[in-house]
Amino acid sequence: MKKIINEILLLPNLISSFRLLLFIPLIVLFNLMSGDDSYRYYILALIFIAFLSDILDGYVARKTNQISELGKIIDPIADKVLVVIIIFNLFITGMIPAYYFWVIVVRDLLILLGGLAVKRKIGRVLPSNRLGKITVFSIGIFIILTLFQIDHITFLYKGVMFISLTLCFASIIGYSVRALEIINRKKNESSL
Predict the structure, then answer these.
(1) Sorting pLDDT into bands at 50, 70 and 90, what band is 128?
(2) CB of 165 within 8 A of CB of 96?
(3) Which of 45, 48, 135, 173 lies most in the core, judged by the most C-beta atoms within 10 Å?
(4) Domain ranges, ordered by start, for the chain
(5) What is the pLDDT of residue 188?
């Protein structure tokens, strides 16, 4: 129990927990946005804060050597919770197409369930990789374009949407391949 408390109190994990808690003001602001368009700028500010905290927690963890199993869980969960809440609200307000919403939700669900299966098999959490971070970044750019009300028929909007959708599929495949390699390596090590 003491180990868990010590991990919770590590600065990178506190930063990730702060990012996770941003879902509360995001929900409130999306509800307020339905009556007043100016709230979208507060939402954008929170997205920017979340982005900075995502960079900061990883940087602090590496620089201070405070990489923990708990951090490997909190960090991606915070990303997924915020992305799903934002995407859901954009979907129910009609700002993004249904297929985009479902690709994001199914991707996050598959990676979450895959992560749980890998943890059960090898006893540790697979950390986020570069492809996953790039995918979330591209989704973030698409969200920002949507909140700035960029015309949906522009090349920029459609291009970023296409890139983020393509990266979603690539990240699922990449995560699956990496998980299978690690599981097989663990299996081979235990059979020696």
Answers:
(1) confident
(2) no
(3) 135
(4) 2-191
(5) 79
